DNA sequence: ATAGGGTTAG
């Protein structure tokens, strides 16, 4: 085979006076210009074969480049067929194919091809490494990446370790979570462009080392090192996660001052940052002012609402997104499902699930995990289980969501079985997993197991219990009537107890009528969090339940004197895909008069069937709100249930979610309603599910 | 040639 060089080319062709026009001065530009579609490519390809130019790199490579990199993914196989026809592909040809495969989402093929390149003794050049290292990054192929790094070091002298190669090495290590190795390459660089910094940042972002990103960026600014839009995107992500609004706003000013507002990715990052810092209005204003909003921008804004618990706004925006004809992605759906889960919006979530199936959205691990969480939080734990069992791969979050969901729905033993399965499948539990495990022990009344897990999590797995873990155990002991042990645990645990812990103890004192420890618990709670009404109410109703009515009234008066208001309870009910919200004594609903009529009717009917109002509670509440003529029969869950009764077809299940624990009177009423109206009623309160059916509740009156 | 926006449990 004769090796041509470009300079020999024109003279060679000027002698042939055939069909072929004079070989162009710049074949690359010409070929690239001609190849706009696959069809063009075919024509040029055919022409090059006919003119026997295909074996000339200067002609073949532009063709290859067009097929592998410039046209859509589908031509990568075509590109490879061209490549295989080359008799002696040189390093540039290999480089193009290696990059092509990576870009076409087949980075494994890039690695195979690189191996072939070495076997065929084609010397890689400094352009080969960025491509092949990118393939390693995509695959998180650390071993291959390290081998290539070694190869580069070994061949130093023959080939240059350029700045590009170094950047790629940093990014490769960062993608494989090897931050120390990335940092070592980074620190050894003689010149660091913004790309090097961004590569390093991307690793810290991946691993959630937000402080590192912000710290390094501040250092960068102090040293006057240049940065660009890509750098800012990483830094904004860190600002959001750290709620570092100060730096975030500085970046916003910078963006405005430097006319970078046209960069939609940057604006989306700002939207995300403001939303994560709780500035939803600013985020929304930026979002609304974008000239075009792609799926990522919509997702960022929706997740912003969902993140700050404005779930109804999240769903409303999702609705707007569909009206704007922007197709949601897997990522959008994660936030949407999370909002549905919080709201208990079963119908909407189910619709999302069927949409995912219909549109063939990819069931990523995250998305499936969200589905599991959503179904479990809506009380459909069997569907959650179904989704789980169909997943080809699961991570710790997936297992945790399932364990948690089973536990909350009263299937403690099953939850623990799945925990053991998780260990057997070598998925490492994290601290949240143990919240689920302890919660399972709690709801199943498995006190001994619960104590063991609390000790075992740090002893066997090195996960130190946090205040929340102690909270679960305190609750568990309290429920089981082991009030003294619970109290001792609080005073002896290595973490300072918070108000939540004392409040938990207080609630179990109420349940088991233990006024002495209750008084101590209230004292502690008030010291830590003075203005929380529920605490006073717990102790006062405990007094009432043991016949100490004077103490009960005294405490209520004290509370009134201190100006402590009851925190409002609300209940949600979802009907035909929209979520209705009720508060006690609520008059805000457009159908209010009708709903109150329905409540009166409902109460009358269940009284006939034997329901007796909790007079003690009614009296206390009446005293407290005498001016408002408040009534326990106007608790938010009763309004919501009554609304459900008149708005759904006979026999349909009524699903309510509420923010507080369900009160005793409503619990009694719901049992009777389920019998009288032949309805299943599912109430999700802040702690667990109550499935009311035929006059009884799945919690066995223990919550 | 190398870096970049939105994701999930208490």
TrEMBL record:
InterPro entries: DYW_dom, E_motif, PPR_At4g14850-like_plant, PPR_rpt, TPR-like_helical_dom_sf. Belongs to the PPR family. PCMP-H subfamily. The keyword Nucleotidyltransferase does not apply. Residues 610-703 form the DYW domain. Signal peptide: none annotated. One of its GO terms (molecular function) is zinc ion binding. The keyword Cytoplasm does not apply. It comes from Perilla frutescens var. hirtella. Keywords: Repeat. GO terms for biological process: RNA modification. PPR repeats lie at residues 90-124, 193-227, 294-328, 395-429. This is DYW domain-containing protein. Pfam families: DYW_deaminase, E_motif, PPR, PPR_2.
């Amino acid at each position: 085979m004769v090796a041509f060089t470009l300079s020999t080319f024109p003279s060679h062709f000027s002698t042939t006076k055939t069909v072929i026009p004079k070989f162009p001065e710049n074949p690359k530009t010409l070929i690239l210009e001609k190849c706009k579609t696959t069809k063009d490519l075919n024509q040029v390809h055919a022409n090059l074969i006919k003119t026997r130019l295909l074996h000339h790199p200067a002609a073949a490579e532009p063709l290859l480049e067009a097929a592998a990199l410039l046209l859509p993914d589908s031509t990568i196989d075509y590109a490879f067929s061209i490549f295989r026809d080359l008799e002696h592909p040189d390093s540039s040809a290999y480089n193009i194919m290696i990059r092509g495969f990576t870009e076409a989402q087949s980075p494994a093929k890039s690695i195979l091809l690189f191996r072939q390149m070495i076997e065929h003794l084609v010397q890689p050049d400094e352009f080969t490494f960025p491509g092949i290292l990118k393939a390693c990054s995509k695959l998180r192929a650390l071993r291959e990446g390290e081998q290539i790094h070694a190869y580069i070091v070994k061949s130093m002298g023959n080939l240059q370790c350029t700045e590009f190669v170094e950047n790629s090495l940093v990014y490769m290590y960062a993608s494989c979570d090897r931050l120390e190795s990335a940092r070592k390459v980074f620190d050894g660089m003689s010149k660091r462009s913004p790309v090097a910094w961004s590569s390093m940042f991307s690793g810290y972002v991946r691993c959630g080392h937000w402080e590192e990103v912000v710290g390094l960026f501040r250092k960068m600014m102090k040293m006057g090192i240049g940065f660009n839009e890509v750098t800012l995107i990483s830094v904004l992500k860190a600002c959001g996660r750290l709620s570092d609004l100060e730096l975030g706003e500085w970046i916003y000013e910078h963006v405005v001052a430097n006319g970078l507002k046209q960069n939609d990715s940057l604006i989306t990052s700002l939207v995300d940052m403001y939303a994560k810092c709780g500035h939803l209005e600013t985020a929304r204003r930026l979002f609304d002012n974008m000239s075009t909003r792609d799926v990522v921008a919509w997702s960022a804004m929706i997740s912003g609402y969902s993140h700050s618990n404005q779930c109804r706004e999240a769903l409303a925006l999702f609705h707007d997104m569909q009206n704007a004809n922007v197709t949601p992605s897997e990522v959008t759906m994660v936030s949407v499902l999370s909002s549905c889960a919080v709201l208990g919006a079963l119908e909407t979530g189910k619709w999302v699930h069927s949409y995912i199936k219909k549109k063939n959205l990819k069931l990523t691990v995250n998305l499936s995990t969200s589905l599991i969480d959503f179904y479990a939080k809506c009380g459909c734990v069997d569907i959650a289980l179904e989704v789980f069992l169909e997943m080809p791969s699961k991570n710790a979050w997936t297992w945790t969501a399932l364990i948690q969901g089973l536990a909350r729905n009263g299937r403690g033993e099953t939850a623990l079985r799945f925990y053991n399965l998780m260990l057997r499948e070598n998925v490492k539990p994290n601290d949240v997993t143990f919240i689920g495990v302890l919660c399972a022990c709690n709801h199943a009344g498995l006190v001994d197991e619960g104590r063991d897990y609390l000790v075992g999590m740090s002893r066997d797995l090195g996960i130190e219990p946090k205040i929340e873990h102690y909270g679960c155990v305190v609750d568990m002991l309290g429920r089981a009537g082991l009030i003294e042990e619970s109290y001792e645990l609080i005073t002896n645990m290595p973490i300072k107890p918070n108000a939540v812990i004392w409040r938990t103890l207080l609630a179990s004192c109420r349940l088991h009528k233990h006024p002495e420890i209750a008084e101590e618990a209230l004292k502690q709670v008030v010291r830590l969090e003075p203005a929380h009404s529920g605490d006073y109410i717990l102790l006062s109703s405990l007094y009432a339940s043991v016949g100490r009515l004077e103490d009960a009234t005294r405490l209520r008066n004290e509370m009134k004197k201190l100006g402590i208001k009851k925190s409002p309870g609300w209940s949600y009910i979802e009907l035909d895909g929209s979520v209705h919200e009720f508060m006690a004594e609520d008059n805000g609903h457009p159908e209010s008069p009708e709903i109150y009529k329905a409540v009166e009717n409902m109460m009358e009917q269940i009284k006939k069937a034997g329901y007796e109002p909790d007079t003690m509670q009614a009296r206390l509440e009446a005293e407290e709100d005498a001016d408002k003529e408040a009534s326990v029969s106007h608790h938010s869950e009763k309004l919501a249930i009554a609304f459900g009764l008149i708005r759904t077809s006979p026999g349909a299940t009524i699903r309510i979610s509420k923010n507080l624990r369900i009160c005793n009177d409503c619990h009694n009423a719901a049992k009777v309603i389920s019998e009288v109206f032949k309805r299943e009623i599912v109430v999700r309160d802040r702690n667990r599910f109550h499935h009311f059916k035929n006059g009884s509740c799945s919690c066995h009156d223990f919550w």
